[in-house]
């Protein structure tokens, strides 16, 4: 069986800083895979490399059996990517950006209009579609980025912090769509600091720390409800959080005498 996403010895350095240190990944089709870890662990870098937006310093990666490299024509239409760190064009309207994304992927104009309307309705952006993106809130920008990543129905979604800035209703809808996508055999790889939502949606989770994949674990994932976290051997409540602290160390707290 061809893996949806694979990586071997993936390394990335920025000047004197090492972001990834020999990352290995093997993600099966139909999986919702979560990457968690502290800020600066290498999560966004990993997704950017898999999307062909950054070149690895060494190592290799494949998506759907195709070797990843920037602007690969065989991958562009099969990958959807969204990240708050890759901003949208501020001085275009949201609807214009979404339509343009669909047309750039070669979809017929009629299908682009239909899908754009579906996504705008799903993410409560119908009224905002005619407004410039620079007028959008953080959450609205996030929802538009997700819509752009999904409009061409890619086989692999690479989503960096997809729940950041979303209201509860929008997050619920995104969770539902991700479950629908995975149930159809497609794959989503996401990063998030929202461990409860990761527990509720992901089948498998990898913990990145200091550029290394320290541990992977299976989760109940889609068997749980949209707003529920799974339970497991690590503990009765928030097992993923406890596992994270085992890997990266429990945060040191400080009592503030002046609060």
How much beta, percentage-wise? 15-25%
Overall form = globular
Mean pLDDT: 92
Summed up, the helix count is: 8
Q: How helix-rich are the residues, as a percent range?
A: 25-40%
**Oligomeric grouping of the chains:** single chain
CATH architecture designation of the largest domain: 3-Layer(aba) Sandwich
Question: What are the low-pLDDT stretches, counting only 5+ consecutive residues below 50?
Answer: 225-236
Strand order of the biggest β-sheet: 6-7-8-3-9-10
Biggest beta-sheet profile: 6 strands, mixed
Separation of termini? Answer: 57 Å
Descriptive overview:
By secondary structure, this protein is of the alpha/beta class. The protein folds into two domains: 184 residues, P-loop containing nucleotide triphosphate hydrolases (Rossmann fold), CATH 3.40.50; 68 residues, no CATH class. The chain contains eight helices and ten strands. The longest helix has 16 residues. It is globular, with a radius of gyration of 18 Å.
Q: What is the strand and helix layout of this fold?
A:
Elements lengths: L4 E10 L2 E11 L4 E5 L6 H8 L7 E6 L2 E2 L5 H4 L2 E4 L11 H11 L4 H14 L15 H13 L5 E5 L7 H16 L3 E5 L3 H7 L2 E6 L2 E7 L20 H10 L11
Parallel strand pairs: 3-8, 3-9, 6-7, 7-8
Antiparallel strand pairs: 1-2, 1-4, 4-5, 9-10
Helix pairs in contact: 3-4, 3-5
